Structures are given as C-alpha cells and as structure tokens.
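note to self: dont lose this again. the chain is below, predicted strucutre after it. 546 aa total, dont forget to put it in the shared folder this time
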Amino acid sequence: MHTDPKYNRRIFFKQLLAGSALLTAGMQTSCKNKNPLGHITGGIVGANSKAGHLLRNIDALPKPSRQINADVLIIGSGISGLSAKRWLHQSRIKNVMLIEMDDHFGGNAHHGKNAVSAYPWGAHYIPVPDSRNRELIDFLKETGVITGFDDTGVPVYNEYYLCMDPEERLFINGMWQDGIVPEAGVPAADKEQYRRFASMINEFKIAVGTDGKDAFAIPLDHSSADEQYRKLDKITFGQYVRDLGFTSKSLLWYLEYGCKDDYGCNLETTSAWAGIHYFASRKGRGSNTGAAGVLTWPEGNGFLMENLKKQSDNGDIFSSQLAYKIQEHESGTEVYVYDVNRKESYTVLAKKVLMASPQYVNKHLLGGLGSAIREKAVADFHYAPWVIANITLSKMPRQRGFPLCWDNVIYGTASVGYVDANHQGLVNSIKRVITFYLPLVNEQPDVARRKALATKYEHWLEIITAELEHAHPGITECIEHADVWIWGHGMIAPCPGFVWGESRRVAAAPIANKVFFAHSDLCGISIFEEAFYQGIRAAKEIIQSL
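---
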C-alpha cells in the first residue's frame, strides 16, 4: 500500500543536499560540503540494553553476599508492575518490594524533560475510558484527572488534561487538513467506502455476544467469547477488509495507520479482531467531553506512571536491580538480583513473586521453573520495534503549518507522525519539543530490530528530518537538538491467532501458586488500560493465594 519509505527518504534527502549544493555553487569549496545537519546536537539515548544483556552470561556475575526477605517481590516497573504494587498497597499487603532492571521506571511510559518541556519516550495519551471500568475510573479520580461526576454519574474530566484544540491534523496532497481521516482531494467513491466502514464499526461497537458481553471491550479479557467475533482473530485485518470490498487507498492507509499507531503492525500482521478492536472498543463517556475525548500530558503517560508510583512507594521501589535467576526454596521463592550500580549480588526470599516483565525476559529467569508447555507458548509472543525521537525546535519555519496541532500526521509516510509536547502547556513558548514516532513495520520484527540497533544516530537523523521536511520545508535549520530512543521490543504484536489463542492463557498462569505474571504482552495489545488491568488481576491472584 505504501511506496518504499526508505527509497523515498533517500531520494528526498539526496534532493535536499543537491538543492543546497546548487544554491551555494558560487561559494568556496569549504561551504559546498557543509553538513546540513551539522548544527543539530543529540544522540541515541535509549533504550539501554546493557543490563539486560547480562542475562546471557549470569555465571560472570558475583555470588550473592546477602539476603532480603519479602512477602511479595515484583520484578518490573512498567505500568503493570506499578499497578500491582499500588493494588497490594491499598489492600494493606505489607513488605512488598519492587525492583527494576533499568535506571528509570515506567517501561514504555518513561519520559524526559529539558528546559523547553517535558516529553514522552513512549505512550503519550489515553482515550476517555469506559465508565464501566471502575478500577481505572477510581484511579483517575485519585490522580485528579476526574474532578467529579454529574447527576447521572458520568465523570467530569479535568480541563487541563483533556487534549486542547486543535487536536489532530493530516498533511495530504500538499496541505494540512483538520482530522486524520483523509479528506482533502479524496474522490467521492472513496468517501462512500468511508461511510460503509464507519457504519460497520458502529455495529461492532454496540454488538453483544451470546454470553451478554460486549463483542469488543477494554480490558480485552472482558470481551465476548462468542465465536462469531473471536474467529476474526484467525485472519489478517488486510484480508478481512479486502474480502468486504474495501479498496480505497486512502481508507486502507487510515486503517493501517491505526494498526501502526497502537500495535506497531501493518494490515498484514494485525489480526482482524485486533484491527476492529482499535476502532470499536472505545466507549468512553465524559460530562464535558465527547466519546472521542483524549487525555494527555506533556510527559505523556509518564504522568499516570508517576502517580501509580507515588501511590505505592514506601521506599521499597528500586531501580538498577537486575533479577537474573529464580529458583524454588522451601520457604518460598528465591530470586537472585544484581545491583548494577554497586556491582554486587544478593538474593530476595519471597513468599510470592510477581513477574511484571515481558515474556522474552521471563524465559531467561525461570530456568527449571518454566515448563515445556510454557516455553512453547512464549515462542508465540512477537514484539514490534519502534524508534522515537524528541526534537527541540529553536523556532518555527516561516511557512504554513504552524502553529502545531497536538497530533500531526503525514499521509503516506512510514511514521505515524509527531505530537507537540508543549501543546498542553499554558505558556506559548517560541521553542518547542516535538515527539516523532516511527514503528518499524516493513520487515520481520527480528530483522528490523537488529537493523535498528545497528543504525547510527546520523542516519536516523537523516530519515527523520527528511520526513519532516516533506510537510515542513525548512524545518531542519530550526532543529537545535534531537535525541533518539530505540525500543527493540516496543510492544506486543497482535498477530493473527495470538489474541484468542492459547499462548496468552498459558503464559499468564501462575507457577506452583508462588510465581505470578502481569505484563501488557499478556493482553496481546499494549495500551495503558490493559497493562493497568493486568497488574490488578495478578495482584488479586496473589492476595487470594496469601
């Protein structure tokens, strides 16, 4: 459906350089070879995989020198781990310790900050949630995101956190249009397909299975088990829409944009069930916002992550702690941990262990505790790689296209666009930070992952600036700093057969009532609501077992 994005970027960048050369033909030789990106500072700042790679050679780690006792040990500080920690804390379960391999917390809700703005290094928003999701509604009330409820019980959302206008736009056919559904220059026949697709989605939104559950719900596990819907997981979203006669290039682009945006997949690697879920599962309500309302912050979902941490941190949450082996013990479960900063090892003897880490990490830790059935199930987990860049602009180009929207998408390109980190700020600064999102969907994930990790910063900068120049000619000279973050395993990919296959269930099952599991990859869809749910689900299992 897309032209080759790598080819287009190379051609564009060569043309950019060629144009610069023509303009400076009469200048001295030293000026002709000036690097048009040479003024940009920055580098590849994450993700740091060095600590994780220590798992490949644990025999080289020092022997444990001490032991710590805990009722519950949580491994991993992503949203699921922090959600579990908070739930256990509120349930008055004491002596709960959480350790994180990295030097920061939050998983892909991690965030950063410079003199201009805070900014996300991953997830940057959540849609207004379904009011029936009471656990999430309660959390949002505790954080001040929900300020109250109207007479009918519908939440009232904090106006500072609802995405301000203008919310989203699309660059298509040489111009910016409101909204990201392609409209400018789109033929009437295509728009008729839009209407037919929208009508189909509206039917799926209100559909209820024979078990009385919504056909498509969040959390995903609350969706109907009715086979007429679940069978859609066995085919690709691309095959499904083609079989229904959807041929509009602009519509197919939009559908693939959705798959890339939430899953890091394309139409041919997303199951039809997951593809429909993206459009049909959002059923939020707000007294002061529409059903399509979005909650966002300069630091993205780092705002929610920090609140989860704050609500459960008793000085027992630790970073730079690498769990590298788990084994049975007569008094519970023994976990070997390496302190990355102190370069020493210790053990944690825990009654219960909650692994809030992804399955590709868990398989290295479990050793003999993991069964052959579990190992086979984990082999079905596939992760989408992403590249994210936070770009500081010293000024705005003198052209159309500014000021920015919150979400800015460029039609027909490989990325899913960029968000304006300053959008929710009350101060209108000349300088801005924009966060650029590039899912690597055009190759098999393992191939794309290896190439991404081997690609140098300068080449990422060429790719990113070339795409931005397509919509904003002259923007390159306005960039003063750009940092790049490579998420090799950015999010779980809902490939055909995975969401409602057996692998998720097998991987989520506790081991010997001692080791429990919670991570967004156990949902098949990597969004905040699912990770939040997984943490609570596992915490409840632990409480019941205690």
